[in-house]
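Translate structure to sequence.
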């Protein structure tokens, strides 16, 4: 019997400090769960990885029973819980709730579960309202969450200059922050500033981090909220002016903005082609797993080459892979490997093209409804008990997945691979067509410090991948 347990907590703090997750797991295993799926995420989210994996296993008829400690572990939304239980009932999966034993197959049990689901959502909405009220009070008191470099929080959680001593320089952190502002104005680029302050002060900034830091309104003496736009949230920023000592004057800010604008104009063009080249986003560094970015040689030929994005980062974030590999060499090697390994891809595709599905779904649904009626009788009559046993056995027999092969999809994918195995096909493509074609076949291309190029291919129309 395949018995799964499902445990969930909303935050990592609950899992670690309060040991709530381990308590759930221990109870579920003690109740007979052979495997426990775990999520550390809000119950209001429908994107929980292990929860969706559990539903997938149920739909594939790989689960006989699910054990949870409370109904709200399934979610904090009536709709989410209702849909999950519908799937359990449809696939004849028994749901066992340790803190409130109910039978979702019976009308009373269904009613009880919906009541508990409504209570779970009510508690979630009430908590959300309290958090919003707390955050509103937090902002009214001009409090700050994470102070930027050079600042700290006082006893009222408001920003104040950080007067603690920086060990290596002997200066205060606020003074070091002023030095960094001067360096931004004096030195040629933000990368030069990042390298210098790491060497001299062991202060770690990335180029983008330094750019964001210098634009932070807190450095101008203001306490601001909702400055950064978030997807799906359209809220006007709240700016409280002159709440603490400023690190940057208006004149200094203008000078920095002019310099950043000049650097951007020098380094880029109005018609940027960033990301618009073959294998864009698919080339990775073997050593750190980071992406590799495209750059151009200073020679008039403007040769394109790829380098690890982490090579220029300071300190512990730096990757030692300094190799510059020509983009054209990477593309040529990838195409050559694809042409060479096309037979292996087709063979792998033949093993992946079939899917397993339960084909007798209507008959199973009919029998499941009959089974629910008989169980609802709660009868001790031997004939009814025998009928229940026979229907359960019939459902298990009909629920055996049948392998189904999509011949049209298989032949279409096979034809694509056969075309891609011809070098003349790739030679006929322009830049935009080449990018689209490689994106369909290539999962990623790894490059190491010796310039060795290793592509991994994905099969068209499937989610599987293989390395030649």
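Result:
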């Amino acid at each position: 019997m395949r018995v799964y347990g499902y445990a969930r907590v909303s935050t990592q703090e609950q899992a670690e400090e309060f040991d709530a997750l381990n308590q759930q797991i221990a109870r579920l295993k003690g109740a007979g769960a052979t495997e426990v799926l775990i999520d550390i995420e809000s119950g209001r989210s429908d994107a929980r990885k292990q929860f969706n994996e559990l539903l997938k296993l149920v739909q594939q008829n790989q689960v006989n029973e699910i054990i949870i400690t409370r109904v709200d572990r399934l979610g904090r939304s009536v709709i989410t819980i209702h849909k999950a239980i519908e799937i359990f009932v449809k696939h004849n999966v028994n749901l066992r709730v340790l803190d409130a034993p109910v039978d979702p197959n019976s009308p009373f049990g269904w009613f009880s579960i919906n009541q508990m689901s409504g209570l779970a959502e009510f508690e979630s909405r009430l908590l959300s309202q309290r958090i919003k009220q707390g955050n509103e009070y937090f902002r009214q008191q001009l409090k700050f969450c994470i102070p930027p470099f050079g600042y700290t929080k006082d006893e009222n959680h408001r920003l104040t200059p950080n007067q603690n001593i920086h060990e290596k320089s002997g200066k205060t952190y606020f003074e070091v922050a002023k030095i960094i502002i001067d360096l931004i104005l004096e030195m040629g680029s933000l990368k030069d500033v990042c390298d210098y302050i790491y060497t001299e002060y062991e202060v770690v900034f990335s180029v983008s981090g330094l750019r964001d830091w210098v634009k932070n309104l807190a450095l101008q003496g203001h306490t601001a909220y909702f400055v950064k736009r978030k997807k799906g949230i359209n809220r006007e920023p709240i700016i409280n002016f002159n709440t603490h000592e400023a690190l940057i004057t208006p004149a200094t800010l203008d000078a920095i903005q002019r310099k950043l604008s000049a650097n951007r104009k020098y380094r880029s063009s109005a018609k940027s082609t960033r990301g618009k080249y073959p294998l864009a986003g698919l080339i990775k560094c073997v050593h750190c797993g980071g992406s590799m970015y495209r750059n151009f040689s200073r020679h008039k030929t403007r040769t394109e080459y790829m380098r690890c994005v982490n090579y220029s980062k300071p300190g512990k974030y730096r990757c030692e892979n300094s190799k510059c590999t020509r983009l054209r060499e990477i593309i040529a090697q990838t195409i050559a490997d694809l042409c060479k390994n096309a037979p292996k891809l087709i063979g792998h595709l033949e093993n992946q093209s079939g899917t397993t599905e339960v084909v007798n779904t209507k008959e199973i649904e009919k029998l499941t409804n009959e089974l629910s009626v008989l169980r609802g009788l709660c009868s001790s009559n031997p004939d009814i008990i025998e009928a229940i046993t026979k229907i359960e056995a019939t459902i298990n027999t009909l629920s055996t997945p049948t392998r189904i092969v999509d011949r049209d999809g298989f032949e279409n994918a096979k034809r694509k691979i056969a075309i891609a195995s011809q070098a003349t096909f790739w030679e006929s493509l322009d830049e935009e067509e080449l990018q689209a074609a490689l994106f369909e076949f290539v999962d990623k291309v790894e490059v190491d410090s010796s310039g060795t190029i290793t592509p991994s291919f994905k099969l068209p129309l499937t989610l599987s991948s293989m390395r030649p």
